[in-house]
Design brief:
This protein has 131 residues and is of the alpha+beta class. It has one domain: D-amino Acid Aminotransferase, Chain A, domain 2, CATH 3.20.10. Helix content is 27%, strand content 24%. It has a five-stranded mixed beta sheet. A hairpin with a 2-residue loop joins strand 6 and strand 7. Helix 1 crosses helix 3.
Length: 131
């Protein structure tokens, strides 16, 4: 099944445990899901580097094994793992094409807070009376 990343931010989990995500500006827009995932990752002790990451780097790091996981985030999808990247000249796989443990932990942490199943230590949840 194919998916597009058009309106989503993308994150790359590297072999040293750090996460790389493109910085805000240009085509990268701020979003609450992006901001929340960065906060949750840093809370776990994960280094998050907001820096440019080219498609050629993405492809090379996937081939070498340096890139272990990739995921996209957005309001509707929350977190969606990226297992295979298809482009006009071919395709490449990331981390065996499966959802990785960092992606799973961050998605579960954010969804748990959203659904009131986990402690909201950040004050992100606001109860609206009468709804």
């Amino acid at each position: 099944m194919g998916r597009e990343l058009g309106g989503m931010n993308v994150f790359f989990v590297m072999d040293d445990g750090s996460i790389v995500t493109p910085p805000l500006g240009g085509t990268i827009l701020p979003g609450i899901t992006r901001k929340s995932l960065i906060a949750l990752a840093r809370e776990e002790g994960i280094t998050v580097d907001e820096k440019p990451y080219s498609f050629d780097e993405w492809k090379a790091d996937a081939a070498s094994g340096r890139l272990k996981e990739a995921f996209a985030c957005g309001t509707a999808a929350v977190v969606a793992a990226i297992g295979t990247v298809k482009y006009p000249q071919g395709e490449f796989q990331i981390g065996g094409g499966e959802t990785g443990p960092v992606t799973t932990r961050l998605r579960d942490a954010l969804v748990g807070i959203q659904r009131g199943q986990s402690n909201d230590r950040h004050g992100w949840i606001h109860v609206i009376e009468g709804v």
